[in-house]
């Protein structure tokens, strides 16, 4: 087994009427030209699920389904996984200093942010080309 070093570059901040990523000052220069993009991928640490029990999970039950399915952890977005890495595509609203204001994110306040990458045209796939298992049928209309 190999181990790799990952460092936190900032954190998610959820306030009453705004949501933003607060980058550590050291990494602020890394935001240069990000204002030319309007969607980004945020990679974050699912910090409250960083436990030996959650990390040992290889099967999971995707939540909010009409049917009960036990699926492989790599076939779902379970927060309990060997490496608790969260990935969310978000819309950038504005950038002020070391803060990237975004429309929403499914991470809680204070969640460590690991990386940010611009969303590019090659990242999207037309909906009718996406193959999904039947228990995710309800996601087909989701943008
Ligand atoms: C199912 S995970 C999926 C995350 C990401 N969209 C992905 O696909 O990798 C999202 C859920 O993780 C939970 N969550 C958010 N931030 C968390 C944190 N820091 N630690 C543990 N759980 C968290 C919330 O309940 C949220 O609804």
TrEMBL record:
Q: Which domain of life is it from?
A: Archaea
Q: Which residues form the TsaA-like domain?
A: 6-128
Q: Which InterPro entries match?
A: TrmO-like_N (IPR023370), UPF0066_cons_site (IPR023368), YaeB-like (IPR040372), YaeB-like_sf (IPR036413), YaeB_N_sf (IPR036414)
Alphabetically list the UniProt keywords: S-adenosyl-L-methionine
Q: Which CDD domains match?
A: UPF0066
User: Gene3D superfamilies, alphabetically?
Assistant: YaeB-like
Q: Is S-adenosyl-L-methionine tagged as a keyword?
A: yes
The entry sums up its family as follows:
Belongs to the tRNA methyltransferase O family.
Note the NCBIfam families from the entry. tRNA_TsaA
What name goes with this protein? Answer: tRNA (N6-threonylcarbamoyladenosine(37)-N6)-methyltransferase TrmO
- What organism, scientifically named, is this protein from? Candidatus Heimdallarchaeum endolithica
Per the UniProt record, the lineage of the source organism begins with: Archaea, Promethearchaeati, Candidatus Heimdallarchaeota, Candidatus Heimdallarchaeia (ex Rinke et al. 2021) (nom. nud.), Candidatus Heimdallarchaeales
